[in-house]
Design brief:
It comes from Hibiscus sabdariffa (roselle). Keywords: Pyridoxal phosphate. Belongs to the trans-sulfuration enzymes family. InterPro entries: Cys/Met-Metab_PyrdxlP-dep_enz (IPR000277), PyrdxlP-dep_Trfase (IPR015424), PyrdxlP-dep_Trfase_major (IPR015421), PyrdxlP-dep_Trfase_small (IPR015422). The structure is a single chain. By secondary structure, the protein is α/β, with parallel strands linked by helices. It has 15 helices and 12 strands. It has a domain of 141 residues: Aspartate Aminotransferase, domain 1. Helix content is 35%, strand content 13%. Strands 1-7-6-5-4-2-3 form a 7-stranded mixed beta sheet, with helices on both faces. Strands 8-9-12-11-10 form a 5-stranded mixed beta sheet, with helices on one face. The longest helix is centred in the last third of the chain and has 21 residues.
């Protein structure tokens, strides 16, 4: 691959010549010190992405080549020993095995690090593998996590059931908006991670990332933030968080056709997660396929444009739905409890997020609304996930938060009739609004709206 340069290390993108493993005895790069490049430090994620290294194709193509090999050759026997000893690594175009590092996946990691403003990133086979790997790397047996009580159901189940049983790692769940509760829950010397979502799934509660990061650091605790709901909108690492995790399957992919995740954080953490003897990513093997990484690398450059349209439409629909009397939850509305907080933290021009919620109070009414929206007016689809170009709708309590029991859902503020909508951008705004209005008119329920 052609050599390119970023604001950080220069990677030797040119293939080593036959019979030459490309290093001098006096110029050995110790890969363990920094396997991944430091990214650009622009505050605007779009500017940071534009400043990131561009990887050209093997024959000068504007798109990078896909490195589909599972294993890689060396020209001299001594080279392999040095690679396994950590003396030579991907920074010098030395690759061992694609479960460890793959050139195409590594490039996607550079883009994710630029997006989130971190030193490094590693891309995984799913969002849950990214989350579980980080927690297992930061916590040992007997460790303790403090987490928001409003989380994606899969994460909640991991913390509530799997980690205590399999790893003796326990979690205290708190109202992440209650600063004193967070402080009191952290046990200095034992609590290893403070974990929360930048915008909670599904209630769209916005976390005070700078304040929570300050508290975590005062207590010696790593701050890990799931930013799946708000790429481009929020940059948790720039606001003080240590690690940012993503389900790339959502907004970043945008096509509802890929399962993928990412860990973005300090190079020291990412390198430790790739350690041959102790690394959670290396040893648990949540490997991303190089062809998936290539697909995602081609989508990230237009993420900013897509997020702006998602957010623009979500804002407009939220305003109009509220005027109709619906109980709407959206951080862009001035009556949202964290509206001003989000304004103070958000990257400018990207809006307030692409999701909104409508509380229909009962599951039966929620299901009726979604039925009309999908099957009569084609406003959107009844499906889990988010970030698709079509609007996706689900009743969270009986779907993506179903791992939580009734008491846990009540504490998290998840109403039985809460409909989560990931607002798409296909069609015209007025066309889709007309479809939504027609669905509402079909409901013929005098108690549908909260009249004030």
């Amino acid at each position: 691959m052609a050599e390119t340069q970023s604001r950080g290390h220069v990677f030797a993108g040119q293939k080593r010549g036959t019979g030459d493993d490309g290093f001098d005895g006096d110029d050995v790069f110790v890969a363990k010190k920094s396997m991944l490049p430091t990214m650009a430090t622009e505050n605007d994620p779009a500017a940071a992405l534009a400043s990131a290294r561009h990887e050209f194709g093997e024959h000068g193509g504007v798109n990078m080549s896909i490195e589909a090999s599972a294993t890689f050759t060396v020209m001299e026997p001594e080279t392999m020993r040095r690679m396994f000893a950590g003396e030579l690594g991907p920074d010098r175009d030395f690759f061992i095995y694609s479960r460890h590092f793959n050139p195409t996946v590594l490039n996607l990691g550079r883009l994710m690090a630029a997006l989130e403003g971190t030193e490094a990133a590693y891309c995984t086979a799913s969002g849950m593998s990214a989350i579980s790997s980080v927690l297992l790397q930061l916590c040992s047996s007997g460790g303790h996590v403090v987490a928001s009580r409003t989380l994606y159901g899969g994460t909640h189940a991991l913390l509530t059931h799997f980690l205590p049983r399999a790893c003796n790692i326990t979690t205290t769940f708190v109202d992440i908006g209650d600063v004193e509760a967070v402080k009191n829950a952290i046990v200095e010397g034992r609590t290893k991670v403070l974990y929360f979502e930048s915008m909670s799934n599904p209630t769209l509660t916005v976390a005070n990332i700078p304040e929570l990061s300050r508290i975590g650091h005062e207590k010696g605790t790593a701050v890990v933030v799931d930013n799946t709901f708000a790429p481009m909108v929020l940059s948790p690492a720039r606001l003080g968080a240590d690690v940012v995790v993503h389900s790339i399957s959502k907004f970043i992919s945008g096509g509802a056709d890929v399962i993928a995740g990412a860990v973005c954080g300090p190079a020291s953490l990412v390198n430790s997660m790739m350690d041959l003897h102790q690394g959670a990513l290396m040893l648990l093997g949540p490997t991303m396929n190089a062809k998936v990484a290539f697909e995602l690398s081609e989508r990230i450059p237009h993420l900013g444009l897509r997020m702006k349209e998602h957010c623009c439409r979500a804002m407009e629909y939220a305003i109009r739905m509220k005027k109709l009397g619906l109980k709407v939850i959206y951080p862009g509305l001035e009556d949202h409890p964290q509206h001003e907080l989000l304004k103070s933290m958000a990257n400018k021009e990207y809006g307030f997020g692409g999701l909104l919620c409508v509380d229909m109070e009962t599951e039966e009414r929620a299901n009726r609304l979604m039925h009309h929206l999908q099957n009569y007016t084609q406003f959107g689809f009844m499906a889990v996930s988010l970030g698709y170009y079509e609007t996706l709708m689900s009743c969270s309590g009986s779907s993506t938060s179903s791992e939580m029991n009734a008491e846990e859902k009540a504490l998290a503020g998840i109403s039985p009739g809460l409909v989560r909508m990931s607002i798409g951008y296909i069609g015209t705004l007025e066309q889709k609004w007309s479809q939504l209005e027609k669905a509402l008119s079909r409901m013929q329920d005098s108690n549908l709206f909260n009249k004030n």
